[in-house]
Amino acid sequence: MYEIMLDLEGKGNKNLYEQIYEFIKKEIQSGNLKCRERLPSTRKLAGQLSVSRSTAQLAYEQLLSEGYIESVPCRGYFVCEMEELYHLKPGGTVQEKEDRSAKKSCPYDFTPNGVDLAHFPYATWRKLSREVLRDDPQELFHLGDPKGEYALRSAISTYLHQARGVNVQPSQVIIGAGNDYLQMLLARMLGTGHRIAMESPTYRHAYEIFLRLGYDCCTVSMDHQGMDIQELGASGADIAYVMPSHQYPTGVVMPIKRRQELLQWASKEEGRYIIEDDYDSEFRYVGKPIPSLQSSDTNQKVIYIGTFSKAIAPSIRISYLVLPWPLLVRYEQVGKNFSCTVSRTDQKMLQLFMERGCFERHLNKMRALYRSRHDLLLTEVRRLEGVRAVKGERSGVHILLYMDRKWPEAEWIRRAAEQGVQVYPLSEYCVDQREMEPAVILGYATMETEDISLAVEKLRQAWGQTENGNNCRKSEFDKNQRDL
Amino acid sequence: MYEIMLDLEGKGNKNLYEQIYEFIKKEIQSGNLKCRERLPSTRKLAGQLSVSRSTAQLAYEQLLSEGYIESVPCRGYFVCEMEELYHLKPGGTVQEKEDRSAKKSCPYDFTPNGVDLAHFPYATWRKLSREVLRDDPQELFHLGDPKGEYALRSAISTYLHQARGVNVQPSQVIIGAGNDYLQMLLARMLGTGHRIAMESPTYRHAYEIFLRLGYDCCTVSMDHQGMDIQELGASGADIAYVMPSHQYPTGVVMPIKRRQELLQWASKEEGRYIIEDDYDSEFRYVGKPIPSLQSSDTNQKVIYIGTFSKAIAPSIRISYLVLPWPLLVRYEQVGKNFSCTVSRTDQKMLQLFMERGCFERHLNKMRALYRSRHDLLLTEVRRLEGVRAVKGERSGVHILLYMDRKWPEAEWIRRAAEQGVQVYPLSEYCVDQREMEPAVILGYATMETEDISLAVEKLRQAWGQTENGNNCRKSEFDKNQRDL
Fold first, then answer.
1. Cβ of A310: how many Cβ atoms within 10 Å?
2. Which strands, in side-by-side order, build the sheet including B173-176?
3. Has this prediction a pTM greater than 0.80?
4. How confident is the model over B74-96, as a mean pLDDT?
5. Which among A325, A269, A260 is positioned nearest to A297, based on CA atoms?
6. Is residue A387 helix, strand or coil?
7. What's the complex ipTM?
8. Which of A35, B144, B263, B440 has its CA 20 to 30 A from that of B170?
9. Which of residues 151-190 of A touch B (CB under 8 A)?
10. Which residues of A touch B133 (CB under 8 A)?
């Protein structure tokens, strides 16, 4: 029988039983202890090493649990057979640093993706967080409803009904952690084999997510009213993804006639659906909000997707789907197994934020802030040389400048960057590389009001100027505005 | 030309321009205003209604935005052509109540799914929440890293290395809102066309999620060492889903020999993977923790999935994947488009919770608590009649009682329920309806210590007793313990 030759450390980091366990494990791994070899009994081992029998017992228990040794009744402990030796790699604690080199920053960045977080209601959010966590709310830490909490879905329904004219019952609302996740979940309900049509240019991120989800995606031309319905019909698509209230990035508002044509297209065949992405409809600066497309849908054809990323902050990770009834039935079959991806404390905070009017107040505050930037930017850009027309204004948090063809798009952007101003190419939103007029996007959500004038002045320097041609230019500009 | 016949309310809820807009919209919808009909100029309309010209302008702007009318330069405003009338449904604010009838509650519920939330560190959590939200942390509300924040991934890597022997760099860790979501994300990396083998009985929820994700799933028998590798080889599966440290629900710990066989199976063909679900390995009451399977994997074949649902609370919705390098490459191609589903404030709180040792303290507290319940329950169940063997002990938060065949499983459960004790059928964890010994599951995470004895006493009454047969029964019990 094998004899254990081990000097135990009296006061090491490890318990005695761990030292024994480690030693025997290494002996087995190194082959010193052979398969089927018999180990001393716990009594004998305890004697050999001058430890208590329970210490020996504990060491063997661990080896038994991990399968290194086995206990044969009335015979004792034996080393197990193993196919090959088991080597625990040393596995250092060295941790690589990911490449997170800072992005080159431009003094003036007209990014269309940001949100002004200087005005986020931190104090309210903290207060709600304290309130929600007060009194040890056990209930909130249990798993909740897969669709999201009823109270939050109810608050969202009320909001959507009032603000967006959406026809919705709380049971149609599915809450999820961001649009990407909801697209993933929606794919479960829609199933495979669909072709999804999106406008060109469009929100490329959504396009790429659908591609990743295995869908056949295509783009359809758009004019000043939105997606070309004839081209949609010819595309073979059975799902159309649109942003009728404020198309991203063009800012086109789809008029009622085009909406009806789109709804008619969907009604023509069973299984056709329209996904309405209503990402920034909260911010409209002139007149009443444009109603949602969903509100005119009488045939259960519109899947509405909304988010709090623009209206509150990207990182709160709360978006929602409003499903038409046929897809809600599918959800019950294939979707409700997936647990809700938003924590219940976060859901509760948002629910209270909405119920107590904080959301409304925040929206009004942000709308006023964004509007002042919008108005200022619109005034300022009229000073610019080379701008044929401004589009996408009145809503959202970005505008489009259609530029003179004297330079290609990249040249307008390069010249701006040289002056320290980052503007964004419209062409990047085109999936297909179709011929387009040069155009740049200016987002103003993260641009301080006082910086807007400074940044536009830089653009003026970048893009040249005519000192005395402004009036003539202005009337030409207005003509272009109408024509485009 | 059409003349507007409208009595404006001086002090209604609506602005003057809204009243004009609503009126004209209804006139168009009802057909009183026909397609291509010309509307009065804003000057004329203002005169007719005795409103300012800017009010008239605003009403027309809204109608223009929504596409009801169009402006023809130098000619005026005309009603648009529409395919069919657009009817805004009245859309009541009635909200259905979902059927949420309270679950029948049993006085003593041995649910295996719960977590003791009475001992959740609410005060610490509140403190972290306050701290994270203090000083208006703008950065935390911007969109973060799709994999999850580096600092949290780093904290998880350190924990996994120390506690589970997992070989991991932070870049291999992907954070997501719950296991269901991570299975969904993993499906993007794995692609379609795989057959996934799970043990029987198994964690059915994961099985059903894989089915929903479109995978061909099969079950493989298990013995007292875990999944039958020969049967796995014959199953045609290329992915095996296992819980080697404490199989759910049987509690089997996979010994080193079987682990090596499993790893060898995976190495035999390219594209084979093992998913290691390490859901409750934190709770082990005897000896050291069982190392993870991933720690013995030298061929990049193990996908490790861990969660904080058991160790902290189900509703914090934070789980993680540790990807082997080949799948990390796939993630870069097809996964990183999906934004992280956990809010950055929640990530930050968990990161601090781990870095400051709160997680360790919490685990130790819960382990001690669960162990005392485990020990008491094990002692108590020996008093029960009809229990052939107890399995799955020493780890996790549930045990299995293999019962006498004198009654079918359902009868054991029915009798318990009659006495107000809810125990759970093992057969429900079997996907295939294979013949099994009757067995019931007793979870003790949510059972107060003082209730355990009371509940087991109820079970004793439910399942009968022999006053003087205890000793004889006990030795028979011990024999069964060894044999099963």
1. 20
2. B173-176, B319-322, B302-307, B273-277, B239-242, B195-200, B216-223, B226-227
3. no
4. 56
5. A260
6. strand
7. 0.74
8. B263
9. 154, 157-158, 161, 165, 167, 169-171, 176-178, 180-181, 184-185, 188
10. 122, 125-126, 129
